[in-house]
Write a structure and sequence with these properties.
The complex is a heterodimer of chains A (263) and B (309). Chain A has a single domain, classed as Orthogonal Bundle (MetI-like fold). In chain A, 76% of the residues lie in helices and 0% in strands. The longest helix of chain A is centred in the first third of the chain and has 34 residues. The radius of gyration of chain A is 22 Å and the shape is globular. The two termini of chain A are 27 Å apart. Chain B has 14 helices and 2 strands; from the N terminus they run ααββαααααααααααα. A two-stranded antiparallel ribbon of chain B has the order 1-2. Chain B starts with a helix and ends with a helix. Classes of the chains: A mainly alpha (263), B mainly alpha (309). At the A-B interface, α1, α3, α4, α5 and α6 of A face α1, α2, α4, α5 and α6 of B.
Chain lengths: 263, 309
């Protein structure tokens, strides 16, 4: 490996500083014992105390987690079925059309998705509810859930485990649920982690589709941010950030550092 | 007949059925497996997009209702002095952001691919953490930094570079800064992926044949990295045009983008046909982007050049 030119090293360092400085500052100020973010008045945990004492905030957190878990479960189940057909039934008709359809949500600007679903539900006179929100989340969670599973199913095919199982007398179904399914497990889990993260953090789609009765955590934070900067939001945002980092770390541990599927 | 004997038999039938599904021998099994996800995507993605395109040609009725008669007035409305600047600004900001991202990202992607060695994986992962981070949280951190009493003003005041706090929030500067911050990873990753694919033997060959570092870069590395440049530009520009949160918080009414205009039509102004027309413009940009991207993926002279091994 060639020597890393020092000037380029400094340049890269500055970019990483640019990427991490804002979050670092925000986290630091969530421990600041002052209403305003200007001067450091000493360390405190009181903003976190206030946060966890805030019942409405905790209720919106619970809603977000429930929404995320259900949307993830549905995405992973549907994603598993779809990925299997796409990865293994190579000769099926319209395969590339199905594959293309599954990738559309990733490219769709969130705002178009949000107002599109809103328009559809209102025109079709379907009431905005928790379940319509769940299905909206499934739309953009699906590509994240399927990505890892499809890659795993393809790589498993070139291994000879399934062939070995069938040579030893297993039926195709037995080979599937005794060999393929367990070996796809880690990919299913990593797909689920990504799906949960995007659902948990989604603001734009939920903002349009949630209707009046449902408040997710990002919607709550958005409303709080409209009133300006407060230490409570610093604390809330820090919790969110640490949570995301934890999920990403879990993803990284499960997927064994194969970053290709993460984007 | 004992239950013990009957069970394996029926199980065998189920097993045979499931096996024919798994192997794809059963006719239509693949379509059945794909049906649930396609149904959700069809209802909650394709149908809404079609509906948006449809209502963009309808008239607005009283109290925000729709009148189903064909008109192009919503698109003409976008060209009016009140709205045209918003459109122009969206494209300008997205273009400037894309160019800035390219200028910033290229040296970084180059350094990561050619010099970072064993740290590559970790450094790429670190690039993706801000991407996975909630965009609300990221915008919020920039609000802290750029506010009137924020750190940037504090620093500039202390250094004596300014006499009074500068209003950063609400300016084009803040919006473009925010956009660059969000979309930088979208530029770095395709660039990096493309640079990684360049056979190092080509670069060695160029050097063996007497070309200097600069010539090698200009004649070998740069041309071979162009697919990555195009991919990165598409992946940055397209979401940038549709961004709505950045300008909502870091900008003001004077820096509103298409996304803000759309949100406004659907939430406050209740002019869905006009909002639909704006969204249709985004959909067209997006489809063009996807088409260009797919063309790039599937071939073209640049892609062929990479197949040399």
């Amino acid at each position: 490996m060639k020597r890393f030119p020092p000037l380029l090293k400094v340049y890269c360092g500055m970019i990483y500083l640019f990427l991490y400085l804002p979050m670092g500052v925000m986290m630091a100020f969530s421990f600041n014992d002052a209403r305003r973010n200007v001067v450091w008045k000493g360390f405190t945990l009181k903003w976190y105390g206030k946060l966890f004492a805030n019942k409405e905030l905790m209720a919106s957190l619970a809603t977000t987690i429930e929404l995320g878990l259900i949307a993830t479960a549905i995405s992973v189940a549907l994603g598993m079925l779809a990925s299997y057909a796409l990865a293994r039934h190579v000769r099926m008709r319209g395969r590339s059309a199905y594959a293309g359809l599954l990738n559309v949500p990733m490219m769709m600007p969130e705002i178009v998705l949000g107002i599109g679903i809103l328009t559809f539900l209102v025109r079709a006179q379907i009431e905005l509810s928790f379940w319509t929100l769940v299905l909206s989340h499934v739309v953009f969670c699906l590509p994240y859930a399927t990505g890892a599973i499809r890659a795993r199913l393809l790589s498993l095919q070139s291994s000879s485990y399934e062939d070995a199982a069938m040579d030893l007398g297993a039926t195709e179904w037995e080979a599937f649920y005794k060999i393929t399914l367990p070996l796809t497990g880690p990919a299913i889990l990593s797909g689920a982690l990504l799906a949960f993260t995007v659902s948990f953090e989604d603001f734009v789609t939920s903002f349009f589709v949630a209707g009046g009765g449902i408040e997710t955590l990002p919607i709550r934070i958005y409303a709080m941010m409209k009133f300006g900067i407060t230490p409570e939001i610093n604390a809330m945002a820090t919790v969110l950030l640490v949570f995301t980092l934890a999920v990403l770390a879990a993803y990284h541990a499960v997927s064994g550092g194969d970053q290709e599927s993460a984007l | 007949m004992t239950p013990g004997k009957a069970a394996p038999r029926s199980f065998g039938r189920i097993d045979a059925f499931l096996s024919s599904v798994v192997s794809g021998r059963l006719k239509g099994a693949s379509h059945v497996l794909l049906a649930p996800s396609s149904l959700v995507l069809g209802l909650f993605l394709i149908l809404p997009v079609v509906l948006i395109l449809a209502i963009s040609f309808t008239k607005r009725g009283p109290y925000g209702s729709l009148v189903w008669s064909f008109t192009t007035s919503n698109y003409l409305q976008a060209l009016r002095p009140a709205y045209f600047p918003v459109l122009a600004r969206s494209f300008l900001f997205a273009g400037v952001t894309t160019l800035l991202c390219l200028a910033i990202a290229y040296p970084l992607a180059y350094a990561l691919s050619f010099f970072a060695g064993g740290f590559r994986g970790a450094l790429i992962l670190m690039l993706m953490v801000p991407f996975w981070n909630s965009c609300l949280v990221a915008i919020y951190s920039w609000m802290i930094l750029l506010g009137r009493e924020g750190l940037l003003n504090g620093l500039l005041l202390r250094l004596g570079l300014i006499q009074a706090p500068v209003q950063f929030l609400g300016t084009s500067f803040a919006v473009i800064l925010g956009l660059v911050y969000f979309y930088l990873p979208f530029m770095v990753l395709p660039l990096y992926a493309c640079l990684e694919k360049i056979p190092r033997s080509l670069i060695d060959a160029s050097k063996d044949l007497g070309a200097g570092v600069a010539t090698t870069f200009l004649k070998v590395t740069l041309p071979l990295s162009l697919p990555g440049v195009f991919a990165g530009c598409i992946l940055t520009f397209v979401p940038c045009v549709g961004d709505f949160l950045t300008a909502d918080f870091l900008g003001g009414t004077k820096t509103y983008l298409i996304g803000n205009l759309i949100a406004n039509q659907f939430l406050a102004a209740q002019d869905w046909p006009f909002g639909g027309a704006m969204a249709a413009i985004l959909i067209v940009i997006l489809s063009t982007g996807i088409f260009a991207y797919l063309r790039l993926e599937s071939g073209g002279p640049e892609a062929d050049a990479l197949k040399v091994r």
